[in-house]
């Protein structure tokens, strides 16, 4: 099979038997058929079966339908565990792997098999889940199925629901250790069945503690065949007659051909399916990984053979953060001219089927001097946190970021939005990450689930401030040094000019440089505040050349000069502008008050 990871999302409900209404809880109360076949059986109250969930195209691996039945997860799992026309399998256990051992560190190992035995060969595995109302209370039902290559003898199968999403194993040349570890509350479902006798038992075991914990070998719940009276909150069944390719088996399978069946059919006892009502059994947690296996017995110490692995995140929790494109003038520079204010939309989504509780967000950023983030609005969710005037500060250079509650709960399939406004005097764009957390249990007894999202530079999420900084430049004969032109006893004239700069833009300016064709550099590296900030720079130069080499009337002798370049940079935007055209000039008289000589 492919070592396929599929993320399903669903929080196992928190209610136990004591809080369930006095309704006889049975897993077949749902709309999903647990009747030993793959397609919907006509004229039944149940209306969904495995074929209802997947699109099939030729011999390709089936894919989830874009529209799933009401109340079901949007991404049911289908894992093909064989290569058409071959007997090799790259996902089998090595001898010594045991359910009672921790996953990593060699407790579980995988290897390749060139010719796996039909008796223990798994072909396809699949799973789905739904939320179903039982006595007015939403219950989480999980369904799982498997096809095996042969119906010879007694069959034993297992299904792990693990909370660690890193569990994986890609077989190498030799035995390869699994990655990942056990988490408190991991569940193991095991069952035993035969060709003619159906399912004799189905049990659930619970892992207690983390990597150093252990599998409690006393089952937390047991059940039997779904076809018996009072199926209960957990049951399983097998096909009691052959399922034929095309009409009964809509996708590719590869069994050992039997009497009257081909390898494309599923002979009696080669199809297994089961289900469990997690809510009715007081089971909860955000399961992240699904593993189906074949085994030597329905006990925790069984020898393990073939496996199929995929993601099975039962919580479907996600978070996004992006520049709020609906906000006016976002981002913008504050009145101080150097602080960029950016408004973000943080979307928190529960993509699963069950309610999540105690929803929180956390800004993941190292705040510099002057940096801060605050919540200004919250919409959606159940009992969202009230935001006071001025917002809720959730982090700054003096306040360490923390988990801020934003809602009591978030229903399955719902999305809430949190408006976060961040100020920074030195970051454009303001880049950071956000983490959201929630608990699958209303009393907080479950293990928190956490999701994060980072804003990357160069994306639309980053919301960079762009601006064309503005600077008004004026030039005149100096009124600071008067008179502006004086004659030197050693010859020549000293001419003084004033350059007046006004920042009429929204952001402060830095690295201001003004160069004159006669006076040279008037100013370099200057700064100027926004909103009309002004500064005057005076520069004098000595010259022996007047505008006219033939003029002798002191009252008509003039000295002209021209600004050759002006450059400046916006403090926030970082945009640099260099001006060289149509810059101001000045013409200064040697003797502006002299009488006109005849």
3D structure, described in words:
With 598 residues, this protein is mainly beta. It folds into 3 domains: 295 residues, no CATH class; 146 residues, Immunoglobulin-like; 118 residues, Immunoglobulin-like (Sandwich). The strands form 7 sheets. It has an 11-stranded mixed sheet with strand order 3-6-7-14-13-12-11-10-8-15-16, with no helix packed on it. Strands 17, 18, 19, 21, 23 and 25 form a 6-stranded antiparallel sheet that branches. Strands 22-24-20-26-27 form a 5-stranded antiparallel sheet, with no helix packed on it. Strand 29 and strand 30 form a beta hairpin. The radius of gyration is 38 Å and the shape is elongated. The termini are far apart. The N terminus is likely disordered.
Task: Describe the structure concisely.
By secondary structure, the chain is mainly beta.
Largest sheet: 11 strands, mixed
Low-confidence segments, given as residue ranges, are: 1-24
Structural class by sheet pairing and helices: mainly beta
Amount of beta strand:
35-45%
Shape: elongated
Number of DSSP strand runs: 36
Q: Could you give the distance between the termini? A: 109 Å
Helix run count: 0
Count of separate structural domains = 3
Structural key phrases:
598 residues; mainly beta; Immunoglobulin-like; 3 domains; 11-stranded mixed sheet; 6-stranded antiparallel sheet; 36 strands; disordered N terminus
């Amino acid at each position: 099979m492919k070592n396929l990871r599929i993320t399903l999302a669903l929080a196992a409900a928190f209610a136990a038997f004591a809080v369930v209404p006095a309704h006889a809880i049975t897993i077949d109360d749902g709309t999903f058929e647990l009747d030993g076949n793959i397609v919907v059986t006509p004229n039944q109250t149940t209306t969904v079966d495995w074929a209802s969930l997947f699109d099939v195209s030729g011999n390709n691996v089936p894919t989830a339908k874009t529209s799933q039945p009401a109340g079901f997860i949007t991404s049911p799992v289908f894992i093909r565990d064989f290569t058409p026309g071959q007997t090799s399998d790259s996902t089998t256990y090595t001898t010594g792997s045991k359910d009672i051992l921790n996953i990593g560190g060699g407790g579980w190992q995988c290897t390749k098999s060139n010719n796996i035995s039909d008796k223990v060969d798994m072909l396809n595995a699949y799973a789905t889940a739904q939320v179903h109302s039982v006595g007015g209370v939403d219950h989480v039902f999980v369904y799982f199925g498997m096809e095996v290559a042969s119906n010879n003898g007694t069959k034993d199968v297992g299904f792990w629901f693990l909370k660690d999403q890193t569990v994986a194993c890609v077989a190498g040349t030799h035995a390869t250790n699994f990655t990942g570890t056990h988490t408190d509350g991991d569940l193991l479902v095991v069952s035993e069945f035969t060709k003619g006798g159906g399912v004799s038992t189905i049990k659930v075991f619970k892992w207690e503690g983390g990597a150093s914990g252990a599998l409690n070998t006393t089952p937390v719940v047991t059940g039997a065949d779904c076809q018996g009276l009072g199926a209960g909150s957990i049951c399983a069944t097998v096909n009691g007659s052959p399922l034929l390719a095309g009409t009964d088996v809509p996708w590719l399978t590869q069994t050992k051909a039997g009497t009257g069946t081909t390898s494309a059919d599923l002979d009696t006892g080669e199809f297994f399916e089961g289900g469990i009502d997690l809510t009715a059994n007081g089971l909860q947690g955000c399961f992240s990984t699904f593993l189906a296996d074949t085994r030597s017995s329905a006990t925790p110490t069984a020898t393990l053979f073939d496996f199929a692995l995929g993601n099975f995140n039962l919580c479907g929790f996600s978070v996004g953060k992006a520049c709020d494109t609906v906000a006016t003038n976002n981002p913008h520079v504050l009145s101080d001219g150097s602080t960029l204010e950016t408004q973000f939309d943080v979307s928190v989504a529960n993509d699963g089927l069950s309610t999540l509780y105690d929803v929180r967000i956390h800004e993941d950023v190292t705040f510099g001097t002057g940096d801060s983030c605050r919540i200004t609005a919250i919409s959606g969710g159940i009992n969202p946190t009230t935001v006071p005037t001025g917002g809720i500060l959730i982090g700054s250079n003096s306040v360490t970021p923390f988990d801020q509650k934003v809602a009591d709960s978030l229903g399955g399939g719902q999305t809430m939005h949190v408006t976060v406004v961040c100020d920074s005097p030195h970051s454009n764009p303001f880049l950071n990450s956000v983490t959201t957390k929630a608990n699958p249990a209303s009393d907080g007894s479950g293990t928190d689930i956490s999701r994060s999202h980072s804003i990357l530079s160069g994306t639309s999420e980053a919301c960079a401030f762009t601006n064309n900084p503005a600077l008004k430049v004026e030039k005149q004969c100096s009124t600071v040094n008067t008179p502006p032109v004086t004659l030197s006893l050693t010859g020549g004239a000293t001419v003084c000019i004033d350059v007046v700069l006004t920042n009429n833009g929204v952001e402060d300016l830095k690295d201001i440089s003004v160069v004159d064709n006669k006076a040279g550099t008037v100013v370099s590296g200057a700064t100027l505040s926004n909103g009309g900030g002004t500064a005057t720079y005076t520069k004098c130069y000595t010259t022996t050349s007047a505008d006219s080499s033939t003029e002798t009337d002191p009252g008509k002798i003039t000295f002209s000069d021209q600004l050759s370049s002006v450059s400046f940079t916006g403090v926030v935007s970082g945009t640099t502008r260099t001006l060289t055209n149509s810059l101001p000039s000045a013409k200064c008289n040697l003797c502006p008050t002299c009488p006109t000589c005849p």
